[in-house]
């Protein structure tokens, strides 16, 4: 995990642990791997808490978004059913009228 590929062996022998970690953090920052830098600078509990809270936020966003999309879909389906009832298609109109009455009665 240490950036031994960047540092030559003779330079690595001269560096103490702090300088090795600084070089590792610099390599991570240069490559844009912020998550690795967070792991170096934070404790395991902070990383766990941050990941847990971000997972909870993603789950809540998914639930709210799914509910909104499903509500819009059902509203469109209801409008389509009412439009087809107005057209008076044979056999389909009777079934759609029963379906719309069932939706209205379950909403109350």
Describe the protein.
The longest helix is centred in the middle third of the chain and has 44 residues, at about 45-85. It is built from 5 helices and no strands. Helix 2 runs antiparallel to helix 3 (about 35-40) and helix 4 (about 45-85) crosses helix 5 (about 90-105). It has helices at about 10-15, 15-30, 35-40, 45-85, 90-105. By secondary structure, the chain is mostly helical.
Q: Rg, please?
A: 30 Å
Q: Approximately how much beta-strand content do the residues carry?
A: under 5%
Overall structural class, as computed from helix and strand content, comes to mainly alpha
Number of helices: 5
State the low-pLDDT regions, or none: none
Number of strands: 0
Distance between the termini: 62 Å
Please state the average pLDDT score: 78
Sketch the topology as an H/E string, one letter per element. Answer: HHHHH
Which sheet architecture does the biggest sheet show? none
| Helical fraction | over 70%
Basic shape: rod-shaped
Quick recap:
Helix content is 82%, strand content 0%.
Notable characteristics:
108 residues; mainly alpha; 82% helix; rod-shaped
How would the blueprint of this fold be written?
Blueprint: H1 9-14, H2 17-31, H3 34-41, H4 44-87, H5 92-107
Helix pairs in contact: 2-3, 4-5
């Amino acid at each position: 995990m240490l950036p031994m590929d960047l540092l030559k062996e003779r330079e690595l022998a001269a560096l103490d642990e702090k300088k090795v970690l600084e070089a590792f953090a610099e390599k991570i920052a240069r490559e844009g791997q912020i998550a690795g830098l967070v792991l170096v600078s934070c404790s395991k509990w902070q990383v766990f808490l941050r990941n847990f809270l971000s997972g909870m936020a993603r789950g809540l966003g998914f639930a709210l978004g799914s509910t909104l999309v499903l509500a819009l879909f059902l509203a469109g389906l209801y409008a389509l059913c009412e439009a087809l009832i107005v057209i008076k298609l044979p056999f389909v109109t009777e079934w759609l009228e029963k379906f719309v009455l069932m939706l209205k009665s379950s909403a109350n």
